[in-house]
Write a structure and sequence with these properties.
This is TPM domain-containing protein. It contains eight helices and nine strands. It is an alpha/beta fold.
């Protein structure tokens, strides 16, 4: 009888251990952000990338993904990267902010896909610079080194902050969305202006309810009544004597067009488009 109890306790313990291991494995799989379908990385390299990505996610509050593939199913690197990001439901927050790096061995192309607010940090100039830095490594078959350059570039530009004058240019609609950050002194001035406006309104209401004008008018009326004052009105006509018309020619701005982002400087531009409610940018480089 005692042996049966001991065996039951052992089986029960093993059961709970297996459940715990399964739960941990499930959590790890859910948090995985390295998808090496082309088998380009070693196990140690994938563990390294996963660890780096977790630290980046905590610091940036954005998603970071690495994917490789041998077969895109006939899709371009751009379409494959975007579908991969959407179907796997990557991204943080309501704008699905994050970035995906794809090594496409089918089309021989590497592709960087910034999404949401990440487009503010990874402008066209910046993601092109990352691809420039990674080109030599990927051309030499050093795929892990290429992925490291991508991760280093993303965190570097995030820490550098959103560049001044940054704007998103939607290549499909031509719409320009300028990023505007508020400095502390601007916020202080706004608060002071709001306080002054509120004080003026309150002062006006207080003055009206004190009825100072009405009391003054009552005194004047009383004096007029006592003095038996009389008022007489005379008709007056307003005649238009002179009239001046000023014509102003407003010059038409022909300096920009849809393809150039409205003529604005391209240094801080992020060329984007919308797909499945996500603002997506980026581009690729053949190798």
């Amino acid at each position: 009888m005692r042996i049966k109890r001991v065996l039951s306790a052992v089986f029960l313990l093993l059961f709970f251990v297996l459940i715990s291991i399964g739960g941990i494995t499930g959590v790890y799989a859910a948090q995985s952000r390295v998808f090496d379908d082309a088998d380009l990385f070693t196990t140690k390299e994938k563990e390294e990338f996963e660890s780096t990505i977790q630290s980046m996610q905590q610091e940036m509050n954005m998603d970071v993904v690495i994917a490789t593939t041998q077969d895109t199913g006939g899709k371009s690197a751009k379409d494959y990267a975007e579908n991969f990001y959407i179907e796997r439901k990557f991204g943080k927050g309501s704008d699905y902010r994050g970035v995906l790096f794809l090594i496409d061995m089918d089309n021989r192309e590497m592709y960087i896909l910034p999404v949401g607010k990440m487009n503010r940090f990874l402008t066209d100039k910046r993601w092109n610079a990352i691809l420039d830095d990674a080109y030599e490594a990927i051309s030499g078959g050093e795929y892990a080194a290429c992925a490291r350059i991508y991760l280093d570039g993303v965190i570097k530009y995030y820490r550098a902050g959103i560049p001044g004058g940054q704007y998103n240019y939607d290549k499909e609609t031509g719409k320009i969305s300028v990023y505007r950050s508020i400095e502390w002194y601007e916020a202080a001035l706004a608060i002071l202006a709001a306080a002054a406006a509120a004080a003026a309104v309150c002062g006006g209401v207080t003055s009206q309810y004190s009825m100072k004008k009405e009391r003054g008018r009552a005194r004047v009326a009383l004096l007029a009544y006592r003095a038996n004052c009389e008022f007489s009105y005379s008709a007056q006509n307003d005649n238009l004597i002179n009239k001046t018309i000023t014509h102003v020619i407003v010059p038409r701005n022909n300096g920009g067009n849809g393809g150039s982002g409205g003529g604005m400087s391209s240094g801080g531009r992020s060329t984007t488009h919308t797909s499945s409610g996500r603002t997506m940018g980026g581009g690729g480089r053949k190798f």
